[in-house]
């Protein structure tokens, strides 16, 4: 099944293992960045590392067997999915003891990992959903209008409308004042068509909320149409499309995705640029993993800016939940720190729990030169 909506995530979040351990499995299968060989090897290594870890947990035999059962299922389904799917990521959720199994194809490559816990680990899914703003593509012809919903790389027709607008006056057919009168008559119909289209767009936006509105308009009527739009929708109008109302959905989708990628890239570049400027003037910003974690431990971080899938092992104080890169003992309570598979991910979770924001940056970017991670700070203590 493809990851398409928040309700899928909520269903996984609600799953109750009643104290048992369950397995969440993520694999980056983005063939744009990885070869098939690399993906297969990553799957193999991930599974063998996870088996070792499951056995080392020291859980009751039934629990360990359940986890090993999960991993056997992942091995089977993983190999199958690699052969048949072109998705950029795979996620499996398993509780073999209770015969629960859920597989998802992801539109974006996650960090590859296996997590054993009493709940399913779903944060990467939420991060992927966040990456894709729901978009409404509105295509307007002289008589028709069509609305498409584009989410998670897929397109769906939302609605269509047809108005009664007469054809243009044929050249040489009428002359003088009567031709002008007919033109005015046609214009009135056209304006009416735009008004209906704008109203329907507003109604649809309430039923199917979208982040961005892209508009493709025949005969360069865009400037005539847009004033009819509700101010709320004008703010969300992010792009004009070349696509036309009669185009096949696949063609519309392709252009929407290209425009979306450009807009996202521009947003990310702006974020990194702001961070770099703040760093250079010695303002409220931090960069590099060590300093960013230090600032986070001091409760200074407002917004974390991190290269997508950047990952590093680290340590955590079991009492204070304070993050470290290497400290074997917590300098505050002197307790032995525990290893965490990915300290970046722990940092992301901490920021989100405290109500901060996290911006994921697609590499390569200027952030690479700053240690692939940084933060905007609330203050400096
Ligand atoms: Zn401590």
List the SSEs and their pairings.
Blueprint: H1 6-14, E1 22-28, H2 36-56, H3 61-84, E2 89-95, E3 100-106, E4 113-117, H4 123-131, E5 135-140, E6 144-151, E7 154-162, H5 176-207, E8 212-217, H6 222-225, H7 231-236, E9 237-240, H8 249-280, E10 285-287, H9 289-297, E11 301-307, E12 314-316, E13 323-324, E14 338-340, H10 343-353, E15 357-361, E16 373-377
Parallel strand pairs: 5-8, 8-9, 11-15
Antiparallel strand pairs: 1-2, 1-4, 2-3, 5-6, 6-7, 10-16, 11-16, 12-13, 12-14
Helix pairs in contact: 2-3
The structure holds zinc ion (ZN).
The site of zinc ion has 8 residues, from loops.
Compose a concise summary of this entry.
The chain has 381 residues and is an alpha+beta fold. Helix content is 41%, strand content 23%.
Structural commentary:
Helices cover 41% and strands 23% of the residues. The chain is α+β, with helices and mostly antiparallel strands and 381 residues long. It has a five-stranded mixed sheet, with helices on both faces. Strand 12 and strand 13 form a beta hairpin. Helix 2 runs antiparallel to helix 3 (61-84). The structure holds zinc ion (ZN). Residues 317, 319-320, 322, 330, 332-333, 335 line the site of zinc ion (ZN).
Give the structural class: alpha+beta
User: Which ligands occur here?
Assistant: zinc ion
Helix-strand pattern, N to C?
HEHHEEEHEEEHEHHEHEHEEEEHEE
Strand content: 15-25%
User: Count of helical segments?
Assistant: 10
Q: Say how many strands there are.
A: 16
Distance between the termini: 47 Å
Helix percentage range: 40-55%
Uncertain parts: none
Question: Which strand order spans the largest sheet, edge to edge or round the barrel?
Answer: 7-6-5-8-9
How can the largest sheet be summarized?
5 strands, mixed
The geometry reads as globular
Oligomer: single chain
What is the average per-residue confidence, as pLDDT, rounded to a whole number?
A: 91
- Rg over alpha carbons: 26 Å
């Amino acid at each position: 099944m493809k990851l398409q909506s928040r309700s899928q995530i909520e269903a996984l979040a609600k799953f109750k293992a009643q104290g048992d351990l369950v397995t969440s499995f993520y694999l980056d299968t983005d063939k744009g960045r990885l070869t098939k060989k690399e993906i297969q090897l990553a799957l193999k290594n991930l599974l063998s590392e996870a088996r070792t870890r499951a056995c080392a947990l020291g859980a009751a035999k039934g629990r360990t067997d359940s986890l090993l059962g999960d991993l056997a299922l992942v091995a089977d389904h993983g190999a199958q999915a690699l052969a048949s799917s072109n998705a950029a990521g795979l996620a499996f959720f398993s509780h073999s003891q209770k015969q629960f199994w859920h597989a998802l194809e992801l539109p974006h490559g996650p960090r590859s990992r296996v997590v054993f816990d009493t709940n399913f680990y779903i944060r990467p899914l939420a991060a992927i959903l966040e990456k894709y703003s729901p978009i409404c593509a509105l295509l307007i012809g002289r008589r028709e209008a069509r609305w498409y919903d584009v989410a998670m790389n897929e397109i769906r027709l939302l609605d269509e409308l047809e108005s009664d607008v007469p054809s243009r006056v044929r050249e040489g057919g009428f002359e003088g004042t009567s031709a002008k009168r007919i033109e005015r008559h046609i214009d009135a119909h056209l304006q009416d068509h735009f008004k209906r289209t704008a109203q329907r767009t507003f109604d649809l936006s309430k039923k199917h909320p979208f982040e961005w509105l892209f508009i493709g308009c025949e005969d360069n009527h865009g400037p005539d149409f847009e004033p009819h739009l509700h101010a709320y929708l004008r703010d969300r109008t992010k792009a004009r499309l070349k696509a036309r109302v009669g185009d096949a959905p696949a063609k519309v989708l392709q252009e929407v995705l290209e425009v979306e990628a450009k807009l996202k890239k521009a947003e990310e570049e702006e974020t990194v640029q702001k961070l770099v400027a703040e760093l250079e003037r010695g303002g409220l910003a931090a960069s590099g993993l060590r300093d960013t974690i230090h600032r986070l431990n001091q409760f200074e971080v407002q917004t974390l800016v991190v290269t997508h899938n950047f990952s590093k092992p680290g340590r955590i104080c079991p009492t204070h939940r304070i993050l470290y890169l290497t400290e074997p003992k917590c300098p505050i309570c002197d307790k032995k720190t525990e290893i965490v598979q990915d300290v970046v991910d722990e940092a992301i979770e901490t920021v989100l729990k405290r109500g901060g924001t996290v911006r994921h940056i697609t590499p390569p970017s200027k952030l690479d030169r700053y240690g692939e991670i940084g933060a905007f700070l609330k203050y400096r203590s």
